[in-house]
Amino acid sequence: MKIRVAYTEDEREKKRLLEWAVKRLFSDAVVKETAAKDGFLHTVLTVPKPKKT
């Protein structure tokens, strides 16, 4: 599952809270920051699929 977040510089703290919440729920989540585009910063949170048991 991928969660894409677009935010402004003023919303950086809200993005950190969202990132923290996802990491608490899914400890193996991967965070990737991308370059600014059209005045927005972007972060992609990737949660791997669960392994079959």
- Backbone shape: elongated
**DSSP helical segment count:** 1
Relative strand content? 35-45%
Widest sheet, order of strands: 1-3-2
Helix amount, in percent? 25-40%
In total, the number of strands is 3
Structural class call reads: alpha+beta
Sheet of most strands? 3 strands, antiparallel
Give the N-to-C terminal Cα separation. 19 Å
- Low-confidence blocks of residues: none
For the residues shown, what is the average pLDDT? 92
H-E order: EHEE
Tell me the Rg in angstroms: 12 Å
Written overview of the protein:
The chain is α+β, with helices and mostly antiparallel strands and 53 residues long. It has one helix spanning 12-25; strands spanning 2-7, 30-37, 40-46. The protein has a three-stranded antiparallel β-sheet, covered by helices on one side. The longest helix is centred in the middle third of the chain and has 14 residues, at 12-25. It is elongated and about 45 Å long. The model has no long low-confidence stretch (mean pLDDT 92).
